[in-house]
Amino acid sequence: MANQEDIFKKVVSHAKEYGFIFPSSEIYDGLGAVYDYGQLGTELKNNIKSYWWKAMVQYHENIVGIDSAIFMHPKIWKASGHVDAFNDPLIDNKDSKKRYRADVLIEDHIAKIEDKIKKECEKAQKRFGEAFNREQFVSTNARVLEHQKQIDEIHAKYAELMNNNDLVGLKQLILDLGIVCPISGTRNWTDVRQFNLMFATKMGSVIDDSDTLYLRPETAQGIFVNFLNVQKSGRMKIPFGIAQIGKAFRNEIVARQFIFRMREFEQMEMQFFVRPGSELDWFKYWKEERLKWHLALGIPAEKYRYHDHEKLAHYANAATDIEFEFPFGFKELEGIHSRTDFDLSRHSEFSGKKLQYFDSELNESYTPYVIETSIGVDRTFLAIFSHALKDETLEDGSTRTVLSLPPVLAPYKAAILPLVKKDGLPEKAREIMELLKYDFMVQYDEKDAIGRRYRRQDAIGTPYCITVDNETLEGAGVTVRHRDTMQQERVAIENLNSYLHEHIKPIKA
Ligand code: GAP
Questions:
Q1: Which domains are delineated in the chain?
Q2: What is the dihedral sign for C-alpha 344, 348, 351, 353?
Q3: What is the pLDDT of residues 398-416, one digit of tens each?
Q4: pTM of the prediction?
Q5: I need a surface site. Which of 293, 295, 336, 508 has the fewest CB within 10 A?
Q6: pLDDT tens profile 429-475
Q7: What would the DSSP string read from start to end of 463-486?
């Protein structure tokens, strides 16, 4: 079986080979942690965004969507705390000259100990077979308990240091844990210092006189500063939400793992405004709702886990991540944060405009509290894509690569394939294209033998291949081949549209 590193390499190369994702500016040797979505990647990405938008906006009467500008008044980032506190702790190795995030070095160290626990479990599972009880094993095995104790101690220390912004302590922890640079293998570290992640730029034609602007590091602030506009123009009643999908920019210190950590990426965020005091109930509600959204994609539940935050961001009174098991381990996919009234209060203070809500049921005005759900489009893409990509050995011993995407997310819903390039079959196939293309993304392909065309459609995740053969011309309909089972059935041409509608249903969380 391929190891995780090989699987990840395959994900990256498959994404490029089939037109999903290309390195940005590739002919100029690329640009660090910036990627372009190709012709199929754009379709998949749009379908992911549509799945989120429908689930959040279309299926919730009390959530509306906006599209705010990337450029915003610079005071916004002062008010939000990003100018002063949107930093990552940075450390360099003096021998390799490589730069790292101090917190990531510690998290990677913890992940290595977690791996040891996983290995102990795998060994025990082999030994005990069916009788293996994981829960019992991890709560009683001496070696596992020792590893877990180590993890808990490091976590506690690390959370305390991060909360206190103790950079000297962070460096000491790295030294105490014996963490070495993966390149040089040495512990020759510089001091830890803070690095602000926002990109700055200038506005106006005369550079000298212009103001410094920041490329937004999150879409959320565009929602907060429009809170009153939306509430009043939409006559929204609390509790209600405002959703937005858009680009965000972060000058990540260490950008790696493909589209997992990019410098330009896209977020899908929703701010849900609630009565003060009810926020922890709503936090629980959204924590569960969002996991349901992920599970409705059909990816097994064990690929997801919650990670409650010990170190809370400057605006939060509760926070959790939904983590996904990427090919490089469990990592954050989505954040759910109880942001209190921090953002609205700060924008009131900095703008001098009162950002309050009059609650007619309580007959009082207050600053609403906010629950935020925030998920990266690109990370969701990577999660879905990497899980869907499989190499299969078939009954006859041959192999195929298949991208088992949920049909509603697949770039093409169907491929229309004339069996041969003659006898009027291409013309009939073109007629079917006309019939379907207004409702579905469909692709016409007549090149190569039919088996090779099926394989190509499997590799790009097309759920249905519609083949036009000689019997089609005699009125016997077409064959529809299912990507996952490779089963074929005959369907009348006049039923094709409703057939696809029936099989490609929207996902309901
Ligand atoms: N408004 C809250 C916020 O921005 P965050 O946890 O910093 O919270 C939310 O980011 C989500 O955005 C993450 O869970 C992740 O999916 C995505 N994200 C953050 N930084 C990213 C990056 N550099 N590249 C790709 N996705 C990123």
A1: 2-86+197-385 (3.30.930.10), 92-194 (no CATH), 394-503 (3.40.50.800)
A2: positive
A3: 999 999 999 999 999 999 9
A4: 0.90
A5: 508
A6: 999 999 999 999 999 999 999 999 999 999 999 999 999 999 999 99
A7: SEEEEE-HHHHTT--EEEEETTT-
